Batch of 3 targets.
Target 1
Amino acid sequence: MVSSMTKEIKIALLMAASLFMEILDGTIVTTALPKMAQYFHTSLSTIALLVSVYLITVAIFIPLSGWMANRFGKKKIWIIAVIIFTFSSLSNALAPNFSFLLLMRIVQGISGALMTPTARLIVLEKTPASQLLKMVSYLIWPALIAPAIAPVVGGFIITYWSWHWIFLINIPIGLIIALIGIKLIDTDKINKTSSFDLLGFIEIACSSGIILIGAELATHGKNYWFSSLGLIILGVILGFMVFKHLKKASNPLFSLDGLKITSFRICQTSGSILWLSVGAMPYLLTIFLQTIFHWSAVKAGSYVLFIFIGNIGIKPFTNPIIRKLGYRGALLSSFGMVFITSIALAFIETTTLPIWIMFLALVSGVGRSLALTAYNGLSFSEIDPQDRNSANTLNAVVSTLAQGMGISLITVVVNLFQFFFLINTAYELGFIFLGLLMLFPVIEVLFLPKNIGHATIS
């Protein structure tokens, strides 16, 4: 079977493997935090820095990926990033103290920030429009599978081995894909004259970092809300400065020209709402079932798992659905599923049949998976190959920020509702809020031409 694959498909699968390693590492760590807190004799809130610091580091250094790939070569940057990620994983497992472990998580975050966008770029830059949806689909699988299996794999490792293996499992994966990549990926052209936009990088890094730090603070309780709001506002102001700088700079860190193309611009605006929802819904449903229904974490998690089952179960059919309905039709259908299930979840009670809750979670996952696939295909459908580097970098920055904001946003929203309503009503309104969020992308997509992105599905 492998021998019958084209070289392009083999490379796409290899890149998907590196994405899987990075996404799994970013999600599986949360299952090990209690054990790690005991091991290092520190509080759970302190050990949780391993997650937030990693995510913030990724957001800060992602903007570097496009320029470095252009300046030093995509193959070289990807292989170096994979190797650094692999050996920083080993260093995490062997960390003698928490400070060293935190430092290695920062190193791991930097390498992940370079590895993930570069992997996507390796696939995107040489893929013709007619094959774009197919190739991009390979890159979506890791984002769907890794979060689904992370709790199970993490729980198994913590129960039967030790937290060290959370990081050690990256070593064989990293070494194998690096060795295959050295042989399989062609050496690409580099631009030695490409100047580095230091001011642009500093502005983007500060804006992204401050926004995510503010979002993280919001999850620590009402006492931090004003500080959180202040940081987010500061980050947004810096974001406007970044936009102005990138528009005027003669050699910007990455170009904003992609935003002139409707299909790409829509994917950054309404697509961000989807990414917010993707992060928020599993979290909200989990906390709701534990807090309001008084279910155990294991029981609540087993029901939330149906979101991920829906994500993965529909995936083999997403491309045919998109080809049948077009991007516009597929997106509107997926938004409808997300909207209806979000509203319906607001009305479940302790007497609700378990199969109904499972069904709603499943359909919610189906809708998100279909929308995610459609957005990823549509995003680059009208971007010229030579412009995909900048577009890929911008897309990575936007999606990372949106994902990072999801849990923080719904946490604040539910807490705000608790000022005016009973706690169970506040959670119910939280589901309605997530459903109503879908109205914005619906309005945007409604005005798209029916044949938008047709070159990738014809």
Target 2
Amino acid sequence: MKRSIVLALLLANAACSPSSTTSTTTQSASGTLAGVDQALINKAVKPGDDFNTYASGAWFDKAEIPADRSSTGVGYDVFKVAEARNAGLIQAALKANAAAGTDERRIADYYTAFTDMTGIEQRGMAPLKGQLDAIAALRDKGALSALLGATMRADTDPLNASNFHTENLFGLFVTQDLNRPDVTVPYLMQGGIGLPDRDYYLSTTPEMASLRTAYKAYVARLLTLAGVSDAAARTDRIIALETKIATAHYDILTSQDAHQATSWKRDDFAKKAPGIDWNAYWNSASLPSQQDFSLWQPGAITKLSALVASEPMEAWQDWLTFHTINQVTAALPKAIDDASFDFNNRTLNGTPQQQPRDKRAIASVNAQLGDAVGQIYVGKYFPASSKTEIQGMVKNIVAAFDNRLAKLEWLSPATKAEGRKKLQVLIVGVGYPDKWRDYSALEIKADDPVGNLQRARLAEYQHQIAKIGKPVDRSEWWMTPQTVNAVNLPVQNALNFPAAILETPYFDAKFDAAANYGAIGAVIGHEISHSFDNLGADFDSTGRLHNWWTPADLKHFEAAGAALAAQYDAYEALPGLHLNGKQELGENIADVAGLTASYEAYRASLGGKEAPVIDGLTGDQRFFLAFGQSWRTKMREKALRARIATDVHAPAPWRVQTVRNLDAWYAAFDVKPDQKLYLTPDKRVKVW
């Protein structure tokens, strides 16, 4: 149920060639920038045959994916701006010699520890010795249950980020109860695998079989480098156990369905999920008196608990040993770090080369001390004028969506009223949160990178469980300001638009309205529309999960969704590899509905007048070209395969083709019936 626009996936593994940073946008007589880079357009391609290649084809011809990236695209242009700023802020913190206990000192010490490779090599595996000795000393399943509880972290998020993966046996997510919006509860989620998804263990395709072989080699290599004896036999036991764990898992499509979540009392665990000593587990997880829990994948929890009882202690000790090491490889000696990169980046995603240590350090500081950096970031780089202008755009796009709802003939009055109420009470955060995270209890040491990582993750866990039983904070942010992304929070009925995404070319106060609405406006519309996609539409205006639709309304909505899923199923990304329209449905609905709402908000902003022609382009042409160019992306084949297998978003080239569902696009580019993207009016999906 990924709510974010997911530029982050591109940014984590992307970089841009010099050609992607040079704009040839020109000014009109009024001084307004067109906001469209005409140098990127491939005019040899008809827009109606392939709008992605038409909008950015000249860039595709020249762009090269750097060796330390699995993809390249416009999102990384924006990310590089934020990264450079973050680097400057961290360097300033290093020079400040701030007092102990301040956030500046935490930032400086974390960065220093992470980049001190001499110290990391000298310490070797010593930072993990106590933990590995404790694993080796386990003698019974009660002690094992306690250790499993002690190592659980708040590292999953099914609602805001479609993050269903944790290496720990279970992950925890804390938010309001799906049926009681005023109650905050912990959600227990499946985990325990090192590969990205269950299909990597169970699929019979040659590609997946090859990755399993490579993973087995990696496990053995990591154990050997860490000085663990009998690595081959231990690896066999680890792979066998993880395969059983994967077999117990829900698949990604089922995991997106909030309806399968269920509530258990503490006493229910012993009866419904025997195998774990649940009292020992919850006591060690710092939840000794918690009585109410939600289980996101209850069937998997039952099966995983049974494995704790049925599988030998030796296998669990081997599994714990590997994952304890695997979760902190970036803070361990270079040979171990390199082995992790070789499998997780080179083999899984096709990235040939590791990123420089300083850039990885910046990313790690942001991951573990995000609000500390973010508070400084917005104070220096996010002007009040940008916040005001984006808030105005959000208001206009919400109004456009509301206007569409009001006019829908197929939607009954009752369903329409609740939908419009969701829009009326929608909370929109722009730039940064109202409240900042308090890191005062987090100890960061300049000579302990492993400990810093582990303590930061524990601090995040403690922050999350501290919310249990307290009133729901609907204004809470789930992204840092320096993140180039955006997100819809379904149970909070809220949106976050971090400062770092509100930059050129997504947004520029000097750009023509068409470009801003086509780029950042489509992002805003996308996030608004998530409240009404196939998953968000399950939640009412209070964030409660229940059916607020009439049967006839729901039937019409599901038919439109099925048509859109079929449209995306037909796209063939690689020979024999099609997109998964059902897996991506929520995101594709948000793309279509969001682009439509942003387009109508743009037209409304003209006040009934026609937009000026700039650079020979009409306003509508600039709108759609800005949208297309904002998604230009080049991705390595392995990364593309991984994306299709595990992600709920369509890859960028097919997100650009969203335009084929909007009537205005056909008129703007004179698209003809004999062109490849042409859909007859009755086949153009209009979910909202």
Target 3
Amino acid sequence: MNWDNKFASDVKAVPFSGIRKFFDLASSMKDVISLGVGEPDYAAPDKVIHACIDSLKRKETSYTSNWGLLELREEIAKLFEKRYGLTYDPKDEIMVTVGVSEAIGLVMTTFLNPGDEVLIPDPAYLAYPACVSIAHGVPVLVPTYAKDEFRLTVEELEKKVTPKTKAILIGYPNNPTGTIMDRASLEKVAAFAKAHDLIVIADEIYCDLTYEGQHTCFASLPDMQERTIVLNGFSKSYAMTGLRIGYVCAPREALEEIYKVHQYEILCASTTSQYGAIEALRSCDDDVKAMFEEYAARREMIYQGLVDIGLTVFKPKGAFYIFPDISCTGMDEEEFCDRLLTEEKVGVVPGTCFGPQGKNHIRISYAASRENIAEALKRMARFVKKYKKA
């Protein structure tokens, strides 16, 4: 059978992940230090693991409510009230998902008609434009610039908005750049969204990894809760990537329709993982703090190391990524990553995997041990010295 003419054209047009391409290649080689995948090098906290095991011993292996365990939703509601002063009804304004990845897809499927446009900062997490396209929408990339540390500006947003624009999708702290947006900057984006009557989809999965200043939840801005869909989860803060637990917080009217898609496509998130997430919120603050402090130390280490190598780079203020400019080597980002992997066995990701504005940049994840970071920096220094142009 010829499958080529059977696929949905929007799906066929979406490229495979450039991150996975380099990760798979690195995995096939010996002695590679991979700084390519954005995954903590920690296991989930012991209390989370024990909570998961205990739930299995209780034989709690059936479906939960499509919304997720009410007990978990109540804990999420308490978190938002305590941290941001936001009130969400756990019964119908919070829904548990299979990670933030599912949540992104759900939201796009729920709100986009063919041809609807979604504004996305460039560079940004590569799943954003892909999920928009798969839902038959049009991703519109809004350029950000290294001179501004890749912060999103209203000036650039105004150049891209059209009558077809339905939403803006933002994620701060940012993957791949490590950029954060302060409250004043976000307030300008909020005013823009209100002026153009846009939905704001705020992916805040890295909120606990903000090293300078405080994270601002977009829904906490004046008059923004009514038009903001907040996405978050447990993968990064609690090192629970494989447990696949995320959630959506949104106004009741919006979440009812998102729930409908989730109900038919997924049914519910893993029961076992949900019990682990409850324990994470109740008793793992010290684990989150310890991981944060270690990431902060690694941030200093890798930033100074890249500066010493001679690469142009700004110090990231959030997440666990750094985004140096490698143009001094005379290579583009693809060639740099290919040759660094082949010659020095260090795996990093081309910046253009995250959008055209990532040209001449690479994304490095410092969610790796200090030992591996030190060795990777040594290998990179040798590589850059070999090819750096005078």
